[in-house]
Amino acid sequence: QVQLVESGGGLVQAGGSLRLSCAASGRTFSDYAMGWFRQTPGNEREFVAAINWSGAKTLFADSVTGRFTISRDHAESTVYLQMSALKPEDTAVYYCAADNLAGRAHLQVSAIDYNYWGQGTQVTVSS
Hints:
This protein is mainly beta and about 130 residues long.
């Protein structure tokens, strides 16, 4: 069983930065792509960013491109989401997710392709 534990959320002013962390355990971390999604009340979970198993490929939603980066540390079995130039519309609960398939060639943007999820961490950006 895979466990994902997010941390790093909080309250920040617009224009500020936060770094989210997601610590993984329960299977070989380096075999699987990882993703970040976010969700606001009444809305579906929205893709934010993904990183492939090796860390060589990344993908971002248009809304965060140029402001967010994603990285992973295999020694720590942790994936990070560095968020900069935050906007009030970035306010959401952010979830870390692990891909269903090991070594997938293409990064996935649909939540259905990720079968393990963290508990979520709240990010609030004030104007």
